[in-house]
Amino acid sequence: MKQKIFLLLILCTGMAAYAQNLSLNQVIEIQKQNVDNAKKVLLQNGWEFLDYNKSNFESTFGFHPDASGNAENYFTYKDDPARGVEVTIAATTKAVYNEYKKFLSDNKFQLIYSEPNGENTERLYENATHSVRTLSSYSNDISYFIISKKK
């Protein structure tokens, strides 16, 4: 009985850690919306609004932030009048990274380039409507996915 409870606890903990991650499809759908609608979707999915930086038109959201603003994950929504809407989310585990990469492949995103960029590898993927830039660190498992409309 103790083994079953322990196994259930491990499974629930894993699901809780994974629950903060939006699918890449959800992130792309959020990118298509104005900031007010994006905020509603994020709040409905357990994210909290943290900050708005007026100088770079960027709203920051956190998943389970503490009193000092540290969170399990961050999401940024940037609406630059000159460049359009760009959203960024971190893939904080290898499983999420692989899920996002599979989504890119399944949805006909083509790799445009891949090159070293300091401590990261930067890649650009495009399909007919969107560009997805990834920054993958050499030193940890966190990768950033930056989504914008294709120019």
**CA-to-CA gap between the ends?**
58 Å
Number of helices: 4
Which stretches are low in confidence, meaning pLDDT under 50 for 5 or more residues running? 1-19
What is the oligomeric state here? single chain
Count of DSSP strands: 8
Order of SSEs, N→C?
Answer: HHHEEEEHEEEE
Strand content: 35-45%
Please, what is the average pLDDT?
Answer: 86
The structural class is alpha+beta
Identify the strand order in the major beta sheet: 1-2-3-4-8-7-6-5
3D shape: globular
From the alpha-carbon coordinates, what is the Rg to the nearest angstrom? 17 Å
Report the helical percentage. 25-40%
Largest sheet: 8 strands, antiparallel
Q: Secondary structure elements and their pairing?
A:
Blueprint: H1 2-19, H2 24-31, H3 35-44, E1 47-53, E2 58-63, E3 73-80, E4 84-91, H4 94-106, E5 110-117, E6 120-126, E7 130-137, E8 143-149
Antiparallel strand pairs: 1-2, 2-3, 3-4, 4-8, 5-6, 6-7, 7-8
Signal peptide: 1-19
Keywords: Signal
Protein described:
The protein has helices spanning 2-19, 24-31, 35-44, 94-106; strands spanning 47-53, 58-63, 73-80, 84-91, 110-117, 120-126, 130-137, 143-149. Residues 1-19 have low confidence and may be disordered. It is built from 4 helices and 8 strands, in the order αααββββαββββ. It is α+β, with helices and mostly antiparallel strands. A hairpin with a 4-residue loop joins strand 1 (47-53) and strand 2. Strands 1-2-3-4-8-7-6-5 form an 8-stranded antiparallel β-sheet. Keywords: Signal. Residues 1-19 form the signal peptide.
